Amino acid sequence: MNHTIETILQHRSIRQFKVEPIEAEKLQLILACANAASTSSFIQCSSIIRVTNKSNRALLAELAGGQSYVESAAEFLVFCADFNRHQQIHPQAQLGFAEQTLIGAVDTALMGQNAMLAAESMGLGGVYIGGIRNNPQQVTELLELPKHVLPLFGMCLGYPAKVPEQKPRLPLDIVVHQDSYQSIDKSVLAKYDNEISRYYASRNRNNKSTSWSEQITSTLSKESRPFMLEYIQAQGFSLK
């Protein structure tokens, strides 16, 4: 097993950071690795907003649901799907297609994962912040995002002050399908549910008693962020 694979398999979400900043050369390497991610048809439709203004950080932490580490992390990056750049180059660009929304989301996620892996390989840690979509219009206004730019997720980065337990992932027997889609193996799922229940019960903090199936049932029994479609369309995405 090489260092790259070890880094990937040791991933944890870090929410407690040391005060020390990230060295400028390390940050540049992280951003360069993000920019090296694959991009559909070489469209390069992603942008990163590095938020350094302290008051903006504090407001983003609040808008993201009171996640204090958005404010305390050494760096906070907002990853956006961006077709405004293309419109600046070609004012008559045909935008607003659903496929462009998918391309923007995929390309930006690949960029984010490259950034996270690069950071972790250098002893840093981080956590993705989907909570910026809790109040997307306010985030858009705060970051002065023009039309055809969609803030998808944030990322806290810094030196870990504490490394939490690793959360078990679904077994490959459930995730990987051979040749065609296969129904879930209930016995494999039951073993995983028990593993997750034991994990939650044994955590040093935020203990709870639930299985993965119970958690999914609760999460998917209600609509999450019902305002997103209207906001996405207002930003010029998924109009047709």
Automatic annotation (TrEMBL):
InterPro entries: Flavin_OxRdtase_Frp, Nitroreductase, Nitroreductase-like. Residues 8-159 form the Nitroreductase domain. This is Oxygen-insensitive NADPH nitroreductase. The gene is nfsA. One of its GO terms (molecular function) is oxidoreductase activity. Belongs to the flavin oxidoreductase frp family. Keywords: Flavoprotein, FMN, NADP, Oxidoreductase.
